[in-house]
Amino acid sequence: MFNSIVTKIFGTKNDRYIKSRWPIVEKVNSLEPEYEKYTDGELKEKIQNFKEIVQQRYKEGEKLQKILDEILPDVFAIVRETAKRKLNMRHFDVQVLGGIVLHEGKIAEMKTGEGKTLVATLPVVLNALAGRGVHVVTVNDYLAQRDAEWMGKVYNALGLSVGVIKHGLDDQERKEAYNCDITYGTNNEFGFDYLRDNMKYYLEDCVQRDYYYAIVDEVDSILIDEARTPLIISGPSEESTEKYYVANSLIPKLKEGEDYEVDEKENTAVLTEKGIAKAEKILGVPNLYDPSNIELLHCIEQALKAHTLFQKDVDYIVKDNEVIIVDEFTGRLMPGRRFSDGLHQALEAKEGVKIQSENQTLATITFQNYFRMYEKLSGMTGTADTEAAEFKKIYDLDVIVIPTNKPMIRKDYPDVVYRTEREKFNAIVKEIERLHKKGQPVLVGTVSIENSEKLSNLLKKKGIKHVVLNAKHHEKEAEIVAQAGRKGAVTIATNMAGRGTDIVLGGNPEMLAKSEIEKLEAAGKELTEEEKKEIYEKFKKQCEKEKQEVLEAGGLFIIGSERHESRRIDNQLRGRSGRQGDPGASRFYLSLEDDLMRIFGSDKISGIMQRLGMEEGVPIEHNMISKSIERAQKQVENRNFEIRKQLLEYDSVMNQQRETFYKLRRKVLEGTVRDYVFELTKGILEWLEDQYIGDPKHPNEWNAEEYAKKIKEYFAYDISPDEVRKIPREKLTEEMYERVTKAYQEKVKKIGDEEMFKMHERFVALQFLDRHWKDHLLNMDHLKDAIGLRGYGQKDPIIEYKKESFALFEDMMSRVEDNIIKVLYWIQPASEEQVREEKRKAKAKQKRLLHASVKDKEAPVVATVKRDKPKIGRNDPCPCGSGKKYKKCCGRNER
Question: Domain Helicase ATP-binding spans what residues (predicted)?
């Protein structure tokens, strides 16, 4: 009560923030008349002057944010003026406010259609003046390319360079894009480039530079929905795939409830004791839990999950003989991504496609930890407020709700609930039919590909023309979504399809004209610029006429065919309608058979509906049911938050190790490895002194024999125990350091080629670092899998994980250091005699191979000579070309 009184008097925190920033918006507005008088060239020159000033002051040690805050009104006013000229779009006051929020490193929640893409240009230009690169992160390659080209007109006009990172670029193209003032790309591409850079062997091959400022578009999708899935770069392991076929053949022979139990809420499927006994009998295995059968057991568990919890056309699809994951939030395909821990192989066995070998992790990072590397991070979305607490806790980002430019007039009707899915779909089709007849466009959101196709088949029977947009047909996603506002249009789409593309009432004339031009050009017709303009004008008139008719019909109607497990995704779907003050409406149709209701909803609801004796096809609207749905969604949201939080807790431990390791690896790439080698040398010598010399002052009490042995083992340096004892205790490490490093440098001089040896040092160091890091990641995966069992011993798994992972990391780093030192110190320049011997061996091997190829074109590398009479005479010249007789050359091997 006290809080509500305070809010009434002082306003909410959000209101107070917006009020405090409004004077900056007014300052930007006051500069507009001044910059309207500037020519394009003068605006560009002004920005370039600001760029020089910012970089100069920053070099002198001033804080970057302070410098940029001072010039913000001028830069924003220049960008607004340039956008007016180049894009025919002027930033509204609320868009300027959104730009301020983004520049200050916060999340701007702006409703769909409020022009977030244009808003980003303001802070992007301002922060690009620092010369450290600005990253704009989008949800797919299409949006990255579209926004870079569209907004690039503004950036280029101001003399700033723009790059795009998308799938399929080579390292050189990526490097050029990252070196631009502004770089657009997807979260996956940025994250994977970071991991790939930390696997490179040459500094010049690294593509990324500074992590200064990033603006994340659809920030809730990237930082929350996708945060449960870490980015992993993996390589094939040597394990056989046969065991997955064996496990897959077993599952159909087992019965649910008897041999195994499935818990959809917890997403688990486990064998019962009866099931284990049955599996052992079928497979002829005496004990599945014997350590020798642990891999087979793991494969059976994954096969069980694949058959019971993963559905085709919902969680994945089979395309071109390949299992491809479907993103549960966007409904998009994710080619190249694979489920980990053998699950993907289990799905391949289930679907009867070729099983690809299991992968081993080479590098990994979560989106949470990747984006926390940026000095300044901000984001924009239509729906972030429901997750404001998580944004603050994990990323330290405040969410600011920006008011709309025009009042929202969309009608959101209450949900209607049916008993069965069949009744629900029939009701949806009836509603679509009614709306279609009066010319009102309809967008139907589904949560899976399966449901979108089911609905499509029902509409076909009714003869209603419609478009289906799901992961199977995503190539022209943006074009289809853009036309969903045309008169009488019916579009069925997975909930998040086409996110980032505005649905324009009456249709999008630019896209219609583009499609028409492409058709004509494909038919072989050459069009002039004038003809292209005429086609655009024709569609513009048509779309304006249709827009009036659609507005009269009530605007875009959104139908949700099911509630998503996140309220935010439902709000995203609703937000496609009612943009920029347009009319519109939305309604969700639910059934008690929907996954959300079935798994998380109460069984009581179904019982009540049965007792009420409801007739088929009659919906129910009741507060208790609405509350139950909301409770179910909150339950799932909380569970998902816990999963993300736990993933972050574990990955934060890993992150400290990753940062330490990658910092060391970068040091090896950037600097001279010899400095690092000599640094390690000192550390090892100090450790050897502690181990074998210890505290005794008298040399006779030293373990000099073992010390001398270890010096030889590590540094290939011969020293007798007596010689060790002659060195004063306080000077031992210093003396030995001088001796072994001097021997090392003399060896390098003997080799003669300093540059070649430096390269060799780097390769040795990097190879050992990468090899041991790969093994460490595998050990960490095994540790993470097993650590949960510590809970049974009343121990906190996270604390145990921290302790054990630290011990593993320390051990790994010790092994890396030992290996690098031993290999580099033991390398010796080959003597002339050794070089001659190696050349002789190589020549002899070449002769044998050549002789084998003369004897038999298909002969193996190690050839055996037949005992019967050779076709070549023993006194004939040898075919190997040595000039000797056959019997004295290759023929001497005969038996």
Answer: 97-255
